């Protein structure tokens, strides 16, 4: 008997959006994936995409709030995809695959660390060895910029915009002062001051944490929230998949 073939198969193209990140073109897929961190990692990788870092996530959501001159945009004038991004950031935790680990002297930050059972693998002895000599506002960077060290003493809670953009933890998470300033530009479009949450110290057992972004969290916190209380188990999360770099995708944006 002849085997029957499928009568039909529908394939719909995904929307790809280019943004500027650290002077280069970054292309991501729209819409975002939904779920907790382990689920998001699985969905993004199965789609042939790359998990976003915290800095990349800032650049992805930036055009939904701020124009090229740094001014607040009119949400009604945005294309539907960017309107969706704004709505999503008000309803879901915007997870990024940049993890932290509390150490003896400060917090280690790493983009896209190895993961096992949904948890980041980050050993302080390994992280220390990879740090380089470059330092920005007290934040020490590895030579490849993938790992950062933020000494304790940074401010958390509600923060004014001036201090927010210069906050060492935000710079460490963002990967650069330039991207931290983008986060501040987003924060300026909100009613309330931004808020950073992190509560681990040298006295706590070493733990890895994942940060997420959310906009207008509730009636008491109407600002941009950068929260690091989470281990990534919340099913209310979301993340965008980033396309692998190609010759075109990696070209410098003037």
Molecular structure report:
There is one protein chain. This protein has 254 residues and is α+β, with helices and mostly antiparallel strands. The protein has one domain. The protein is 24% helix and 31% strand. It contains seven helices and 14 strands. The chain has helices at residues 37-46, 54-61, 80-91, 124-130, 161-165, 168-174, 177-188, and strands at residues 15-21, 24-34, 93-102, 106-111, 115-116, 119-120, 131-136, 139-142, 147-151, 157-158, 195-197, 208-215, 224-230, 237-242. The strands form two sheets. Strands 1, 2, 3, 4, 7, 8, 9, 10, 11, 12, 13 and 14 form a twelve-stranded mixed sheet that branches. It has a two-stranded antiparallel sheet with strand order 5-6. A hairpin with a 3-residue loop joins β3 (93-102) and β4. α2 crosses α7 and α6 crosses α7 (177-188). The radius of gyration is 19 Å and the shape is globular. The termini are far apart. 39% of the residues are buried.
Head-to-tail CA distance between termini: 62 Å
Structural class: alpha+beta
In N-to-C order, the SSE pattern is: EEHHHEEEEHEEEEHHHEEEE
Number of beta-strand segments: 14
Q: Which word captures the global form?
A: globular
CA-atom Rg in angstroms = 19 Å
User: Uncertain runs with pLDDT below 50, 5 residues or more?
Assistant: 247-251
Main pleated sheet: 12 strands, mixed
> How many alpha or pi helices?
7
Helix content: 10-25%
Count structural domains. 1
Question: How confident is the prediction overall: mean pLDDT?
Answer: 91
% residues in beta strands: 25-35%
């Amino acid at each position: 008997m002849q085997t029957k073939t499928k009568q039909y198969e529908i394939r719909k193209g995904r929307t790809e959006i280019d943004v500027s990140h650290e002077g280069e073109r970054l292309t991501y897929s729209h819409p975002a994936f939904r779920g907790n961190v382990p689920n998001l990692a699985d969905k993004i990788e199965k789609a042939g995409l790359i998990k976003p870092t915290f800095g990349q996530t800032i650049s992805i959501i930036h055009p939904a709030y701020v124009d090229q001159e740094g001014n607040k945009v009119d949400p009604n004038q945005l294309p539907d995809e960017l309107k969706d991004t704004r709505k999503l950031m008000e309803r879901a935790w915007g997870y990024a695959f940049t993890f932290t680990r509390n150490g003896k002297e400060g917090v280690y930050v790493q983009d896209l660390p190895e993961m096992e059972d949904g948890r980041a693998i980050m050993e302080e002895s390994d992280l220390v060895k990879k740090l380089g000599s470059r330092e920005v506002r007290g934040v020490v960077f590895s030579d490849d910029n993938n790992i950062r060290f933020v000494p304790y003493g940074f401010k958390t809670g509600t923060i004014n915009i001036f201090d927010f953009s210069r906050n060492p933890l935000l710079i460490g998470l963002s990967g650069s002062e330039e991207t931290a300033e983008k986060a501040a530009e987003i924060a300026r479009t909100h009613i309330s001051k931004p808020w950073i949450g992190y509560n681990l110290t040298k006295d706590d057992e070493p733990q890895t944490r994942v940060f997420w972004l959310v906009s207008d969290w509730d009636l008491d916190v109407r600002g941009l929230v950068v929260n690091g209380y989470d281990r990534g188990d919340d099913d209310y999360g979301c993340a965008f998949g980033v396309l692998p770099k190609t010759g075109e995708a990696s070209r410098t944006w003037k």
